[in-house]
Specification:
single chain; mainly alpha; globular
């Protein structure tokens, strides 16, 4: 029993280090930056508005899913979703409107990952 020290500070720090080391950053986005905020753009076409509605529905669905996961599982799920959207966006056959959708998904994942790492789990 002497070999086990469950209250070791070193052990706790390594757990937290993993949580923060692999977070999604702005440089993870294609082009190395966050998407441009188009909320105030008056010249948004109808198709983009429909895609934005789909992105908002996806946000609500993701938030609902994350509420049912542990913090670690939510973190993993967010990262997997981000990387799937990024891979889909970087596909040569992806249209501009699809790229807009995938960029929106990536933005949501970035925001949720940031929320998790600021310990504001209730914001999920």
């Amino acid at each position: 029993m002497e070999d086990f020290n469950f209250n070791s500070k070193e052990q706790m720090e390594s757990v937290y280090a993993v949580k923060y080391d692999d977070c999604i950053t702005e440089s993870d986005f294609p082009g190395g930056s966050l998407p441009i905020n188009r909320d105030n753009d008056q010249d948004v076409d109808w198709n983009m508005m429909k895609v934005d509605q789909s992105i908002n529905k996806y946000r609500k669905s993701l938030e609902s899913t994350l509420k049912n996961l542990s913090t670690v599982d939510a973190h993993d799920f967010i990262h997997q979703t981000f990387h799937k959207a990024k891979s889909s966006m970087e596909n040569d056959n992806t249209s501009d409107i699809q790229k807009h959708y995938f960029r929106g998904i990536m933005q949501i994942c970035y925001d949720k990952d940031k929320d998790l790492n600021q310990n504001s789990v209730t914001v999920l």
